[in-house]
Design a protein that fits this description.
The protein is 38% helix and 18% strand. By secondary structure, the protein is of the alpha/beta class. It has a single domain, classed as NAD(P)-binding Rossmann-like Domain (Rossmann fold, 3-Layer(aba) Sandwich), CATH 3.40.50.720.
Length: 393
């Protein structure tokens, strides 16, 4: 199968390209380097050094004995997407080319606007391009479990059957997003569902939990195949950030009480799930939703996991609660359902504890890099705060 990965230079895109190629698929990639620019803008860097894309592509070709077709392209330009689809003729597109940060979207009006425009434009352009070029292309769109928020009822996979005033219907489950970023993902989901109905497309919307990990394989012989690992407040997902704090002896900073409960999965499980969605495609005219995660934990429990694994490696770290800058419930019901991927064969391949251990091993040689980053670990973006405008790169 020919698969185009948009956002191939990102945290998930790069390991997914390796995973799918190992499974015999022909992978092409598109990216414009925005993730690197955004992290630099907030004053940080990847804890694990990330080589330039040309070096990644050279390493890819050497390992897999074939080049990866690659386009350095901004997908907000509709002509770019049309050119790529006409040239590569993919069977499927895995769409990862969006800004993935709630705090980045909450910095101020300009950042909120940028994230909305970037994420919605790339998705709409891709939908129109697929409708124009080949309506049989299977679109796999990375959403987020954060679209649902934390409702006081169980969370189904996308849809809910209701009865109201004696009538029944199957409706999209109500979204209660908690940031401008998460609302952009909600709008993207509704756009895809509408496009599938409008043009008889096929799409899988993946509501993914928080991903933990730095690599797919236990083999660390070539760091060019490691993915990036961010630790700043904007792009450093919580467990990866905890690991970076642990490796330099900093307290693990938990926002508020830490009772916020979220869904998690390892990096290895994430790419496996995306591969399953790809290899068991939606039908023509079908819009389906997968809740993609492995386990559910509170943030304080995840901090304790990192603390425990770090202790096994001789690293003594404390846990510190800090004022929560976000507008979120810290104690709440949270019971999401995740059956669709398991029915298609998903079986977890690596525990969260093992993933934390691998991250700490990968970070061992980069402690000074983390310490020297100008951006610290403490949150500075308040959900109710700054309304001044700043430029976005």
């Amino acid at each position: 199968m020919k698969v185009l990965i948009t956002g191939v230079d990102g945290y998930l895109g790069w390991p997914l390209a390796q995973y799918l190629t190992n499974r015999g698929h022909t992978v092409g990639g598109a990216d414009n380097g925005y993730r690197r620019a955004w992290v630099q803008e907030v004053g940080s860097c990847s804890a694990i050094p990330v080589c330039e894309m040309k070096d990644r592509l050279a390493a890819f070709e050497k390992r897999f004995c074939r080049p990866m077709p690659y386009w350095h392209a901004d997908l907000r330009d509709f002509g770019n997407i049309l050119d790529i689809l006409h040239s590569f003729r993919p069977d499927a597109v895995v769409h990862l080319a969006e800004c993935p940060s709630a705090p980045f979207s909450m910095i101020d009006r300009e950042h909120a606007l940028f994230v909305q425009i970037n994420n919605l434009t790339t998705t709409l352009n891709l939908l129109y391009a697929i409708a124009k070029c080949d309506r049989g292309i299977h679109l796999i769109k990375l959403g987020t479990m954060g679209e649902y928020g934390t409702p006081n009822i169980d969370i189904p996979e996308g849809f809910i059957d209701i009865e109201f005033h004696g009538r029944q219907d199957r409706l999209s489950f109500p979204r209660q997003a908690g940031s401008w970023y998460h609302w952009s993902k909600v709008y993207g989901s509704y756009s895809i569902a509408f496009a599938v109905k409008l043009w008889d497309l096929r799409a899988t919307d993946v509501m993914q939990g928080i991903v933990v990990g730095s690599r797919l394989s236990e083999n660390r012989s070539d760091e060019r195949f490691c993915t990036r690992l961010d630790f700043d407040e904007a792009f450093g997902t919580v467990v990866n950030r905890f690991c970076c704090q642990a490796i330099i002896g900093e307290p693990l900073t938990v926002y508020g009480s830490g009772g916020q409960t979220r869904s998690f999965l390892s990096l290895a499980d994430s790419v496996q799930c995306l591969g399953i969605a790809l290899e068991s495609p939606a039908k023509i005219g079908e819009y389906r939703v997968f809740n993609q995660f492995r386990e559910v934990y509170s943030i304080i429990d995840m901090a304790r996991k990192v603390q425990s694994v770090a202790a096994q490696k001789g690293l003594k770290v404390d846990i510190k609660t800090v004022s929560n800058p976000r507008l979120e419930q810290e104690q709440h019901h949270y019971n999401p359902i995740h059956e669709n991927l398991r029915k298609l064969g998903f079986r977890p391949v690596r525990s969260i504890n093992d993933e934390i251990s691998f991250i700490l091993d990968d970070l061992a040689n980069h402690a000074n890099r983390i310490r020297s980053a100008p951006k610290g670990f403490y949150p500075t973006v308040s959900w109710k705060g700054d309304t001044t405008a700043t430029d976005v790169k």
